[in-house]
Amino acid sequence: MASSPSRKTRIPFCVLRAIAFFFQRVGHRAALRAGAALGDLCRLLLASKRRRVCSNLELAFPQQAGTDFLKWTEVEVFRHFGRMGAEFLRFPVMDDRWLREHVFLENLDLVRQCLSEGRGVLAFIAHFGNWELISKRLALEIDVPCHVVTRKIRDPNIDSFIREHRALYGGALSLSSEDAGIRSILKALARNEIVVLAVDQSAGPPEGIPVPFFCRLAGTHVGAARIALRHKLPLLPAFSCRLPCGSHRVRFGPLLDVPSDSSLSEQERVVRLTSRLTGLVEERIREHPEQWIWMHNRWKGMPS
After folding, report:
1. Short-list 22, 24, 41, 17, CA closest to 158
2. Does residue 210 fall inside a structural domain?
3. Is 304 among the domain residues?
4. What are the angstrom distances between the C-alpha of 57 and each of 67, 74, 112, 139, 214?
5. Cα angle value 195/196/198 (rounded, 5°)
6. Residue 8 has pLDDT above 90, yes or no
7. Nearest-CA neighbor of 126 among 180, 194, 196, 185?
8. What is the per-residue pLDDT across 15-68, written as a single tens digit (0 to 9) for each?
9. pTM for this model (two decimals)
10. Which residue range is the domain that position 86 belongs to?
């Protein structure tokens, strides 16, 4: 649903470009330290977001409630996204050598396998690790357009800035889920291009259905599953993870074939496939819980 104009903020472009200029002029390690410090500041200033992070972590890890593990994770969530923001703004100064030395690809052959069949790549991601690095690093290996399906950000200036920055320096074009719809996605796949959808955000009907996420039902987008089932396309997981050394690992796969059980209705197959995608997302989050967007209201509208 589009935000009402009265609720939209407008951070001036000059401010956004000044922030980007700062992160591009300092060294990489200094930028990450500054990003983490900015994350700490946001944690202190954004009390509602901090409470949401704490609440969501306790819902996902009830056995850890009140422990040092959850306290550490809550702090690191904000620092991680501060570092990610710094890295995203530094895309113009990340040269090919740096990317190859610091962003490692696993199972790249699966991307090439999908492209060799001529039907495009239908990939799914989560807001985990630095997902923006996936398309930027992939562009060094595969000369095929990549499209990222996104929702518009409430602040139109920030939305425009991110889309432009992603297109110029991030190796991907943005498709607005509100505007483009299924037709633009199918056209890109028909051109044997790459389409990436996020599957970890809250969604109510008709766009979403409830499936288990950390042992609780969560409204989940079904777009990726519906496209895969109706057009008999495999789904390719793509997850980026920040490593302790400061580098990143991008892991593709395993490739998911669509359920072919004729005894199931289309809706049942959508539910089953969406549950599989969500289960894979949960597996990655459990490995590094500090790298997921816990400030998102993932269980919105679901019974407690």
Report:
1. 17
2. yes
3. no
4. 11, 8, 37, 34, 10
5. 150
6. no
7. 196
8. 999 999 999 999 999 999 999 999 999 999 999 999 999 999 999 999 999 999
9. 0.93
10. 5-291
Both tokens of 74, joined, read 């809550």
Amino acid at 109: D
The answer to the question of residue 84 being in a domain is: yes
The percentage of residues in the chain with a pLDDT greater than 70, rounded to a whole number, is 96
Q: Total domain count for the chain?
A: 1
> H/E element holding 99?
helix 96-102
**Residue 278 domain flag:** yes
Question: DSSP secondary structure string, 132-167?
Answer: HHHHHHHTTT--S-EEEEEPPPSSHHHHHHHHHHHH
Pairing of strands 194-198, 146-150: parallel
pLDDT in tens, 55-97: 999 999 999 999 999 999 999 999 999 999 999 999 999 999 9
Residue showing tokens 């809250």: 202
